[in-house]
């Protein structure tokens, strides 16, 4: 791993929390994407964290244009390691770039505008469908729990695979 910084985009704070935890564990400086644009030169090697919306890692394309992204962490409602193929494809993340998905959190009250409206509709429709589904997968159970119970699932333990990759260097 030759990243010299952690760069992130966060909407409700869960991705920022992971970025700070990762910075604490690795000793790397942590910047929001907006801060990084002011403080980091183009071409720097970074680990990028972004929140997931419909499989898209928010801010990734912008970060990838400016920096050499060494690894990507998508933070969403699904369990750790879920939807890796879908996220890689939706974001055109190169196969050689390590990709991690981390379970963040959900609090409808932290959302604003269109995101709040979209998630309200999703919880009502998809949540109802999942609740009624008889043969849910473990990932679907996790998603249903997140939609109905909300809260933060951010933890240092969820970063274990990312930290193992960093240590492999």
Radius of gyration: 16 Å
Query: The CATH topology, please?
Result: Rossmann fold
Global mean pLDDT: 93
Q: Say how many strands there are.
A: 8
The CATH architecture classification is 3-Layer(aba) Sandwich
CATH superfamily label? Flavodoxin domain
Poorly predicted parts: none
Overall tally of structural domains: 1
Number of helices: 7
Q: Which H/E pattern describes the elements?
A: EHEHEEHEHEEHHEH
> Which range does the strand content fall in?
15-25%
Q: How would you classify the helix and strand content by structural class?
A: alpha/beta
Describe the fold and architecture.
- The mean pLDDT is 93.
- Helix content is 45%, strand content 22%.
- The chain has helices spanning 14-26, 33-39, 60-66, 84-91, 113-132, 138-149, 160-168; strands spanning 5-9, 30-32, 45-53, 56-57, 68-76, 99-103, 105-106, 151-152.
- The strands form two sheets. Strands 1, 2, 3, 4, 5 and 6 form a six-stranded mixed β-sheet that branches. It has a two-stranded antiparallel ribbon with strand order 7-8.
- The protein contains seven helices and eight strands.
- It has 169 residues and is α/β, with parallel strands linked by helices.
- Helix 5 (113-132) packs across helix 6.
- The chain starts with a strand and ends with a helix.
């Amino acid at each position: 791993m030759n990243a010299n910084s952690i760069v992130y985009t966060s909407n409700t704070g869960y991705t920022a929390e992971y970025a700070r935890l990762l910075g604490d564990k690795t000793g790397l400086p942590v910047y929001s994407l907006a801060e990084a644009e002011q403080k980091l030169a183009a071409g720097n090697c970074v680990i990028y964290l972004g929140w997931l919306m419909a499989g898209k890692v928010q801010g990734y394309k912008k970060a990838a244009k400016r920096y050499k992204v060494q690894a990507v962490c998508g933070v969403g409602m699904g369990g750790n390691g879920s939807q890796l193929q879908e996220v890689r494809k939706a974001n055109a993340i190169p196969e050689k770039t390590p990709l991690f998905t981390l379970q963040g959190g959900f609090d409808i009250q932290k959302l604003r505008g269109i995101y709040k409206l979209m998630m309200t509709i999703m919880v009502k429709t998809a949540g109802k469908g999942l609740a009624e589904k008889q043969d849910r997968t473990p990932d679907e159970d996790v998603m249903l729990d997140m939609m109905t119970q909300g809260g933060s699932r951010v933890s240092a333990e969820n970063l274990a695979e990312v930290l193992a990759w960093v240590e492999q260097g």
